[in-house]
Design brief:
84 residues, single chain, elongated, 2 helices
Length: 84
């Protein structure tokens, strides 16, 4: 959900629909195009892509050859209870 929400927010700032310059990919859903320059993905999607690229690089390719910048940004909410 965070990848979709981030893509929607960034696309709205550019005043264009999601899937044009800003897109997202989550486990069972993707909204990107050839024009997409910024793609928000889940950690799982990123790890799968990295594993695929590593396998390809072992065969002579280059890891993440299509990416210019990769940022792993996780927001976690910690809930604590006070003991009384």
């Amino acid at each position: 959900m965070a990848a979709r929400a981030a893509a929607r927010r960034c696309a709205s700032l550019l005043d264009e629909p999601v899937g044009r310059r800003v897109g997202y990919t989550v486990r069972l859903d993707s909204k990107t195009s050839r024009a997409t320059r910024v793609e928000f993905v889940t950690t799982g999607v990123l790890l799968r892509r990295l594993m695929q690229q590593v396998r390809q690089s072992c065969d002579g390719g280059h890891a993440l050859q299509s990416a210019t910048v990769c940022v792993d940004w996780q927001c976690q909410h910690a809930h604590t209870r006070r003991r009384t």
